[in-house]
Amino acid sequence: xxxxxxxxxxxxxxxxxxxxxxxxxxxxxxQHADDGHGGDAVAWRRDGMAIQPPWIDPTCPGCRGLHVKVxxxxxSHVPRQR
Length: 82
Ligand SMILES: [Zn+2]
Known about the structure:
By secondary structure, the protein is mainly beta. It is built from no helices and six strands. Strands 1, 2, 3, 4, 5 and 6 form a six-stranded antiparallel β-sheet that branches. The protein starts with 5 loop residues before the first strand and ends in a 5-residue tail after the last strand.
Protein backbone atom coordinates (compact mmCIF):
# COMPACT_ATOMS: atom_id res chain seq x y z
CA UNK A 1 0.00 0.00 0.00
CA UNK A 2 1.44 3.31 -1.03
CA UNK A 3 0.92 6.64 0.51
CA UNK A 4 -0.12 9.47 -1.73
CA UNK A 5 2.77 11.84 -2.12
CA UNK A 6 2.58 15.47 -3.09
CA UNK A 7 5.65 17.40 -4.13
CA UNK A 8 5.38 21.15 -4.37
CA UNK A 9 7.81 22.71 -6.78
CA UNK A 10 8.14 26.44 -7.15
CA UNK A 11 8.69 27.35 -10.77
CA UNK A 12 9.53 30.70 -12.26
CA UNK A 13 8.11 31.27 -15.72
CA UNK A 14 9.18 34.00 -18.10
CA UNK A 15 6.83 35.73 -20.51
CA UNK A 16 7.02 38.43 -23.11
CA UNK A 17 4.06 40.69 -23.85
CA UNK A 18 3.59 41.43 -27.54
CA UNK A 19 1.29 44.36 -26.79
CA UNK A 20 3.45 46.51 -24.51
CA UNK A 21 6.71 44.73 -25.42
CA UNK A 22 7.63 44.12 -21.82
CA UNK A 23 9.07 40.91 -20.43
CA UNK A 24 7.81 39.73 -17.10
CA UNK A 25 8.10 36.74 -14.86
CA UNK A 26 5.69 34.98 -12.59
CA UNK A 27 6.28 32.39 -9.92
CA UNK A 28 3.95 29.43 -9.76
CA UNK A 29 3.56 26.55 -7.40
CA UNK A 30 3.24 23.20 -9.12
CA GLN A 31 1.84 20.50 -6.91
CA HIS A 32 2.85 17.15 -8.32
CA ALA A 33 0.73 14.34 -6.96
CA ASP A 34 0.93 10.67 -7.70
CA ASP A 35 -2.47 9.80 -9.13
CA GLY A 36 -2.22 6.23 -7.87
CA HIS A 37 -1.84 4.78 -11.37
CA GLY A 38 1.78 5.61 -11.98
CA GLY A 39 0.91 8.96 -13.46
CA ASP A 40 1.75 12.42 -12.34
CA ALA A 41 -1.11 14.86 -11.79
CA VAL A 42 -0.12 18.50 -11.53
CA ALA A 43 -2.18 21.20 -9.86
CA TRP A 44 -1.06 24.78 -10.36
CA ARG A 45 -1.34 27.44 -7.70
CA ARG A 46 -0.38 31.04 -7.23
CA ASP A 47 -0.85 32.97 -4.01
CA GLY A 48 -2.79 30.03 -2.62
CA MET A 49 -5.31 30.12 -5.47
CA ALA A 50 -5.89 27.28 -7.88
CA ILE A 51 -5.15 28.57 -11.37
CA GLN A 52 -4.84 27.43 -14.94
CA PRO A 53 -1.47 26.11 -16.06
CA PRO A 54 0.88 29.01 -16.86
CA TRP A 55 0.76 28.41 -20.61
CA ILE A 56 -3.05 28.65 -20.74
CA ASP A 57 -4.26 32.16 -21.57
CA PRO A 58 -1.48 34.14 -19.91
CA THR A 59 -2.37 37.78 -19.30
CA CYS A 60 0.15 40.59 -19.13
CA PRO A 61 0.13 42.14 -15.64
CA GLY A 62 1.11 45.50 -17.10
CA CYS A 63 -1.47 46.10 -19.83
CA ARG A 64 -3.79 43.10 -19.41
CA GLY A 65 -2.91 42.16 -22.95
CA LEU A 66 -3.60 38.64 -24.07
CA HIS A 67 -0.84 38.48 -26.69
CA VAL A 68 1.71 36.97 -24.39
CA LYS A 69 4.49 34.70 -25.48
CA VAL A 70 5.89 32.10 -23.11
CA UNK A 71 9.66 32.09 -23.29
CA UNK A 72 10.40 28.38 -23.59
CA UNK A 73 13.93 28.34 -22.32
CA UNK A 74 13.42 30.77 -19.50
CA UNK A 75 11.76 28.25 -17.29
CA SER A 76 13.74 27.42 -14.23
CA HIS A 77 13.24 25.80 -10.90
CA VAL A 78 13.56 27.98 -7.88
CA PRO A 79 14.94 26.56 -4.64
CA ARG A 80 12.21 26.68 -2.06
CA GLN A 81 13.00 29.27 0.61
CA ARG A 82 12.40 28.42 4.21
ZN1 LIG B 1 1.57 44.06 -21.81
